[in-house]
């Protein structure tokens, strides 16, 4: 274990910084890591802060215990003894809470690696899919149970799934509520890879380390350009790449990359 390590726990979300990698753990195993409103607020606040922290170079997202995340804790959210919310409460609130978490994971200019074991259901499934790299243990199951519960999909599922696996498979997951094993998910391109359960932690950490020792600015710009290209023309994407290239060529990591190429050695990037 490295020496430079800071840990906090807020609302059943553990935040653990190890050098330049931020580790987020959904830490409510007794409830299959279902997320409460306070936990979602913690994730929003933590990711928002991380987005402007120039000392960070990667983010890892995990669940504690046997499952990754079984979705939103709807039992707590629908307490019959709680005051009835005003009309339009979901429309006002969710863009700044659950949907904001998905948006931050997808758009933050830091690479995000997600490790999944057990259930990744509902919002938990979409948290995993919003990451840049998702590694699943061979016991993992991905499930979008929204329609089976009588309400329409949310937390980015209708945007993420068609882009990752195509409309036909997305409809099977979203309209029929079909469960997808980790092996199927990897074969479909829904996730990055499936590994034996006992290799999950090491695989996730190794991948995060590779990303954290890369040219952080260039990685962030590349991530942004890939997202931009999903709704842009070729010409617009080429123009975006041009401006990204202008920025990345001004970094210290670019200069180091060029030196290493000339000297025929591996580069040592510092994220600057």
UniProtKB/TrEMBL annotation:
- Supply the EC number(s): 5.3.3.18
Q: Where is the signal peptide?
A: none
Keyword Isomerase appears in the UniProt entry: yes
User: What keywords tag this UniProt record?
Assistant: Isomerase
Query: Which InterPro entries does the protein's record reference?
Result: ClpP/crotonase-like_dom_sf (IPR029045), Enoyl-CoA_hydra/iso (IPR001753), Enoyl-CoA_hydra_C (IPR014748)
Note whether Translocase occurs among the keywords: no
- Transmembrane portions of the chain: none
Q: Which GO terms describe its molecular function?
A: isomerase activity
Stated family: Belongs to the enoyl-CoA hydratase/isomerase family.
User: Which PANTHER family does this chain map to?
Assistant: EG:BACN32G11.4 PROTEIN, ENOYL-COA HYDRATASE
The protein's name is 1,2-epoxyphenylacetyl-CoA isomerase
Gene designation per UniProt: paaG_5
């Amino acid at each position: 274990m490295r020496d430079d390590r800071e840990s906090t726990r807020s609302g059943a979300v553990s935040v653990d910084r190890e050098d330049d990698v931020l580790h987020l753990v959904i830490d409510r195993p007794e409830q299959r890591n279902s997320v409460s409103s306070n936990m979602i607020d913690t994730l929003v606040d933590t990711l928002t802060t991380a987005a402007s922290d120039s000392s960070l170079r990667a983010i890892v997202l995990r669940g504690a215990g046997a499952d990754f995340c079984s979705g939103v804790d709807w039992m707590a959210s629908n307490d019959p003894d709680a005051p009835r919310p005003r009309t339009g409460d979901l429309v006002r609130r969710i863009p700044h809470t659950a949907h904001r978490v998905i948006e931050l994971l997808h758009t933050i200019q830091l690479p995000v690696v997600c490790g999944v074991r057990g259930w990744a259901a509902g919002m938990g499934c979409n948290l995993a899919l919003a990451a840049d790299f998702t590694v699943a243990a061979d016991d993992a199951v991905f499930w979008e149970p929204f329609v089976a519960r009588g309400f329409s999909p949310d937390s980015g599922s209708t945007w993420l799934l068609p882009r990752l696996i195509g409309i036909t498979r997305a409809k099977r997951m979203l309209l029929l509520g079909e469960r997808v094993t980790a092996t199927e998910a990897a074969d479909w391109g829904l996730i990055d890879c499936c590994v034996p359960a006992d290799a999950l932690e090491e695989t996730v950490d190794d991948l995060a380390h590779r990303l954290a020792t890369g040219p952080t600015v260039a990685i962030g710009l590349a991530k942004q350009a890939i997202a931009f290209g999903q709704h842009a023309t070729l010409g617009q994407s080429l123009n975006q790449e041009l401006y990204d290239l202008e920025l990345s060529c001004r970094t210290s990591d670019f200069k180091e990359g060029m030196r290493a190429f000339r000297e025929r050695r591996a580069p040592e990037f510092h994220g600057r």
